[in-house]
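User: Here's a structure from my thesis project, written as structure tokens. My advisor, Dr. K., wants to see whether a designed sequence matches the one we expressed. Can you design one independently, without my sequence as a hint?
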């Protein structure tokens, strides 16, 4: 049987697929977020961003705010550097007719938030997307989202997420 790929791509924050990377005590799922099922059901390919905090400070890092990360020597440059392989992949996909749907971040993360205040990794990510003239579409996993919501609630969030996956948001 021949399987034809959807040729649709979404970029997600690392911990959307792997909550093991989160500051201990702040995990919201045993592994990946159940909302990933929504992406899989649509046949959308997933590019996982690296977790900048895990790579820079490790698994036992404390919880810190954006200001603390901004004042941490080398952290912003680290974020810029680890994004380079992601942009190489996106360029290759875009040059070969694949559709980039946007990036899925984590609301209120000092590194991966997309709404105000934007996290440091996502600032770098979006600056580069703008510079390249690529799509600025994004969606965030809201702070209230936890594994136990699974697929039934809150419906507004999942409806919005589907609109994003359909390129309408
Ligand atoms: S830095 Fe980003 S990917 Fe890493 S745990 Fe925080 S929100 Fe998730």
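Assistant: Designed independently from the structure alone:
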């Amino acid at each position: 049987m021949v399987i034809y790929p959807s040729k649709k791509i979404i970029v997600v924050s690392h911990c959307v697929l792997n909550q093991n990377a989160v500051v201990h005590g702040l995990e919201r799922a045993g592994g990946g977020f159940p909302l990933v099922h929504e992406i899989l059901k649509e046949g959308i390919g997933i590019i996982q961003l690296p977790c900048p905090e895990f790579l820079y400070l490790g698994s036992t890092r404390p919880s810190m705010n954006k200001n603390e990360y901004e004042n941490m020597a080398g952290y912003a440059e680290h974020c810029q550097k680890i994004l380079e392989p992601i942009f190489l992949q996106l360029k290759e996909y875009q040059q070969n007719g694949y559709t980039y749907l946007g990036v899925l971040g984590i609301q209120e993360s000092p590194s991966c938030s997309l709404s105000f205040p934007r996290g440091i990794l996502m600032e770098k990510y979006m600056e580069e997307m703008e510079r390249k003239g690529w799509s600025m579409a994004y969606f965030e996993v809201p702070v209230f989202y936890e594994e136990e919501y699974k697929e039934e609630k809150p419906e507004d969030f999942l409806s919005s997420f589907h609109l994003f996956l359909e390129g309408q948001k």
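When you compare it with your expressed construct, this may help: The chain has seven helices and four strands.
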